[in-house]
Amino acid sequence: MPLALLALAIGAFGIGTTEFVVMGLLPEIAADYGVTIPAAGLLVTGYAIGVVIGAPLMTVLGTRIGRKTMLMLLMGFFTAGNLLSALAPDFGAMLTGRIVASLAHGAFFGIGSVVAADLVAPHKKAGAIATMFTGLTVANIVGVPLGTYVGQAAGWRVTFVAVALLGVAGLLGIARLVPEVPRPEGARIRHELAAFRNVQVVLAMAMTVLGFGGVFAAITYIAPMMTRVAGYSDGAVTWLLVLFGVGMFLGNLLGGRFADRKLMPMLFTTLGGLAVVLGLFTVTAHHKILAAVSVLLVGALGFATVPPLQKRVLDQAHGAPTLASAVNIGAFNLGNALAAWLGGAVIAAGLGYTAPNWVGALLAAAALGLAVLSAALERRERRPEAAAPADAAPADVTPTDVTPADAAPRVPALH
Asked: Which residues cross the membrane (predicted)?
């Protein structure tokens, strides 16, 4: 494994910790600022919206400098935002700090995905992307539960100071281990934007919004759901987040392994399974053991979609992957924002703390429908291509006149 992938994973660890740790601390933050839990959920929504905005904005700005330098600058933004959150005197300042930190998120994973994919052979690209995202999943096994424990024991502000220090560690790791990557020759914003005219790129991003939104609809409100419905203690939330992180880790590795070979079947399986598990979560949330199993499965199925969705965007972007990759990371967080808002809305409407699970199930089912549509369109596009050489071949061409390239027209592989 190239050491540069380890450096990217370190940065991903810090970002993953700050993204998810707030979910385990929502009750404490809400009580400290005197706001309701659905209102505190805006810290998730605001972060996600910041990622959506920051992903294209920071990536566009980054086209003028080398990718390594841009990754280091992004970690600087991340560190500053978390320090602001730690010191925030009121809820508005806290939300501002979350947004500042989030501006780095999308571009970091977008540019990082391109760098990771370029470091390995073509048939190992999804695996390299999964290795970088391993930092995000390990954050949910170690960083998020530990941050939740520290926040509950010593105050949530201490947690955000620690997260800022993770940002410093990520910056130093990139500076030390990532090789200098020159700015791509001929990189033009117009060229990058052209990728969005491809309907398959748009469909992949829509799948990202809906599929990952399904995960966040449930997980954003995991603390009140597990304590007020399943009957767990506040301290048990830490271990439930560890379980979610283990699921994320396993799902990410599984997705990276199969995305290089059976990309679309992998998406069909994981999105369909996610919709079913989230639907059942409305029932299993009332039973401690079944609730814990559901948390594990939501993490595994949700993150098994990350490498294949990211790779599909890179494959379909046709030579202009950087902006498309970053925007797809923004799409993950657009789904987070949508789901966190919808989950808070159904709770505020009095439907209970398990109602967000129904929202998640519907979002995942919609993503599965888009995956089926995407595959159908791809099959239809191939039929004319496969038939064209036979239709165009002159009648007087003999077998000896046909080269192997003519006899076997190139058909792009279905990922």
From this structure: 38-58, 70-87, 99-121, 128-150, 156-178, 199-224, 236-254, 266-283, 289-309, 330-352, 358-377
The CATH class that applies to domain 3-180+195-380 reads: mainly alpha
pLDDT of residue 218: 87
Residue 397 has pLDDT above 70, yes or no: no
The string of DSSP letters for 46-100 reads HHHHHHHHHHHHHHHHHTTS-HHHHHHHHHHHHHHHHHHHHH-SSHHHHHHHHHH
**How many angstroms separate the Cα of 227 from the Cα of each of 52, 223, 237, 382?**
31, 6, 8, 52
Least confident span in 48-57, 70-79, 144-153, 266-275: 48-57
Long-range contacts of 371-377 (CB under 8 A, 24+ apart): 371/207, 371/264, 371/267, 371/268, 371/271, 372/268, 373/203, 374/200, 374/203, 374/204, 374/207, 374/264, 375/264, 375/268, 375/414, 377/199, 377/200, 377/203
Torsional sign, CA 193, 198, 203, 208: negative
Most confident of 93-97, 144-148, 233-237, 340-344: 93-97
Asked if residues 170 and 75 have their Cβ atoms less than 8 Å apart, the reply is: yes
The DSSP symbol for 166 reads H
> Cα–Cα distance between 148 and 22 in angstroms, integer?
8
**CA 153 – CA 138 distance, rounded (Å):** 22
Whole-prediction pTM = 0.69
pLDDT tens for 300-337 read 999 888 888 877 877 776 656 667 777 777 787 788 77
Instruction: Count Cβ atoms below 10 Å from residue 154 Cβ, excluding itself.
Output: 11
pLDDT in tens, 343-382: 889 998 989 899 999 999 999 999 999 999 988 988 887 7
pLDDT of residue 385: 52
H/E element, 264: helix 263-284
Residue 373: CB atoms within 10 Å: 14
Torsion-angle region of residue 186: left (phi > 0), alpha (psi -120 to 50) or beta?
left
How many other CB atoms are found less than 10 A from the CB of residue 286? 12
392 SS3 class? helix
- Locate all alpha helices (DSSP H) within 88-235, ordered by sequence: 91-102, 105-118, 125-138, 144-154, 156-177, 189-194, 199-219, 222-225
Angle between helix axes 263-284 and 199-219 (nearest 10 degrees) is: 20
